[in-house]
């Protein structure tokens, strides 16, 4: 078929694939969308060639999830409860019950690889950053292989009656002990919980979901340093103001004392000037100065002598 000669018609033919790309990219940024794509691939694989129980099969995923590695294993619910399971980094101890009661289930393991960064968008993990890939472990009802209803395709509820599920990150990370990472558990309802490691690069959980190792982000550490600086400056400023107030109090008291001493000296000087002090025996006593009145004649005539 010949291509349209008009340029704008050729542009219209090229637009649909260009418009579709952002949509695929947006889907790959939603963790729950990724879970559904991996789940559908797990169910589809058992319709083709993956039929054996307790055997892990690698799942083919679309190109938009090329960074994700996933495996699926089918178990009998009774066998999983009695013997537990080991799937790559995960160790499921005996004593795991599923609800509702079913005969068979499918367990899906994920390693999100470079797509793990999408979990940084969780609000509850602000102030932390991932230092490991996000690993996921999800349980599904194997009845979904025959019945595609939404109820059968959703995750099962699990009850860990004995030892918790162990997640060993040693295969996917190096030595992180100097960083002292925490275990982050991303639950299916969107909640995030943090806990300490039980051993080097190992975490424990009694729930299914996604797991990673995290450390406090540099921004959070800088914020703490800034807060520490503010506290130090506040303490120093408070101490300076206290010292300054103390000096002002001392200066005011000293000025008052000097004024009182000056007034006292002036008062004593005035009294000593008004009343002279003289000794009367062994006692000092103030005495007034003697002032004699000059005699004056009553008239200008002197008495005649006869």
TrEMBL record:
Keyword Metal-binding attributed: no
GO (cellular component) term, any one: membrane
UniProt-listed Pfam families: DUF1191 (PF06697)
Keywords on record: Membrane, Signal, Transmembrane, Transmembrane helix
Signal peptide start and end residues: 1-25
Transmembrane parts of this sequence: 230-255
Protein name as it appears in the record: Uncharacterized protein LOC105043530
Taxonomic source organism: Elaeis guineensis var. tenera (Oil palm)
Gene this chain is encoded by: LOC105043530
